[in-house]
Amino acid sequence: MVVGAALERNPVARFPAAGFRRKITPGNKDEMLGDIRAPAQEVAVDRSSPTALPPVRTRVLDLPGRGRTVVEDAPGPPGAPTLVLLHGVTLTAELNWGGIVEPLRAGYRVVMFDLRGHGKGVRTSDFRLEDCADDVAAVAAELGIERLIAVGYSMGGLVAQLLWRRHPGLVSGLVLCSTARNVSGSPWERTTALTLPFLVAGAAWMPALHVLRADVIGAGLLDHGIDPADRRWALSQMRRTSLLDALAAVRSVAVFTSHAWIGSVDVPSAVVVTRHDRVVHPRRQHKLALALPGSTVVEIDGGHDVFLEAPARLAAAVEAACVAVSAGAGDRAVGA
Question: If phi over 0 gives left and psi between -120 and 50 gives alpha, with beta otherwise, what is residue 294?
Answer without folding.
Answer: left
